[in-house]
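Please, structure for the following, as C-alpha cells.
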Amino acid sequence: MAILFENNTTGDTGYSSVDADSWRAQTFTPSIAHIITSVKITGQSHGTPGILTISIQAVNGAGKPDGTDLTSGTTDGDTFPTVGHEEREISLTSYALYANVEYAIVVKALNAVTPNDFYWRGGGTDYARGKGWYTDDSGSTWIDHEMDFLFKEYGIKRGESAGVIAVVETRFHYVDASGTERYIQGAAI
C-alpha cells in the first residue's frame, strides 16, 4: 500500500504554464528513504497540452534538475478540466530514493500545440524541503520560480513489498519473497 511521503498542499494561489519548451519543476527532499511509485499534481488544461510527462530527476550542485530522468510516467493533459482544476495521480516506474537527498518532479508537455497549454497549480514558498523552478528552453537553463508547486509524492518503504525492483547508481535493488531488500553491485558503463 502506497504511503504519502513528501508533499506541498499549501499556497494554492496561482499557477504556471507548461508547454513544449516551457517546463516546470518542484524539488523535494525525502526525510525517509523509500521507493517512489507515484506523484500527484494539481492542474488545469488550456488548449491541447497532449500527453504530459512527469519525471523524477536528480538535481545538480545548484539544486536544479540535472536533465536525467530517474523514473517517469505520463497522463493525458487534454483530459484535465478547462474550468477549475484537478489533482491527478501519475504512476511512475518504481525507483529507490535516498533520505535527505534532493530530487525534482519535472512536468513537460512535449506535444503541446500552443504556448501555455497546461497550468500547474502552486503559490507561496512555504515548502521548506525544496523549491519551484522553470525553464523556457527545454531544460537548458533553470530559473528560480519563487513559487512552490502543489504535489504529493507516494511510495513504499524499502523492503515492504516482495517483487519491487529499482536501480540506484550502479546497483540493481530488489525485494525478495521474505521482504528483504537485496542488491547486485554492477559496474559503471
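Residues 71 and 93 are 6 Å apart (CA to CA). The longest strand covers residues 34-45.
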